[in-house]
Design brief:
Elements lengths: L1 H17 L2 H9 L5 E2 H8 L3 H13 L3 E6 L2 E6 L1 H24 L13
Antiparallel strand pairs: 1-3, 2-3
Length: 115
């Protein structure tokens, strides 16, 4: 039973990480391929420090990978599993988006940072 609880704890931690709007926005910005930090900032509208902090978190958790190209660091989704989770979330939302939107038990939480 302990293994199941540990596994569920890790799964919950993963989903909490994916549940952060800014981190999810960063992941979504990488769906079409690698981007440097300035391109991620432009795509997301997040500040440089916030973007870097979220990229560090995502990298520490193994969800993104970093490649140094000269002076620039490029980030990409780690493997195909991350892209598959994002795609599956889209398919699930196609089926339940109205119910999720109307759910009184969950709020959107923090708003996206501007600039």
């Amino acid at each position: 039973m302990l293994d199941t609880r540990v596994h569920l704890g890790l799964k919950a931690k993963l989903f909490r990480g994916l549940g952060d709007r800014s981190r999810l926005l960063v992941l979504e910005s990488l769906k079409d391929g690698p981007r440097c930090v300035s391109d991620i900032i432009a795509a997301t509208g997040l500040s440089q420090p916030n973007t870097s902090a979220h990229l560090a978190c995502l990298r520490d958790c193994g969800l993104v990978e970093r490649e140094q190209r000269g002076r620039y660091a490029y980030y990409r989704l780690a493997g195909t599993h991350v892209a598959q989770i994002l795609a599956e979330a889209e398919r699930l939302l196609d089926a339940v988006s109205a119910l999720v939107d109307e759910c009184p038990r969950y709020t959107e939480g923090e708003e996206l940072e501007e600039g």
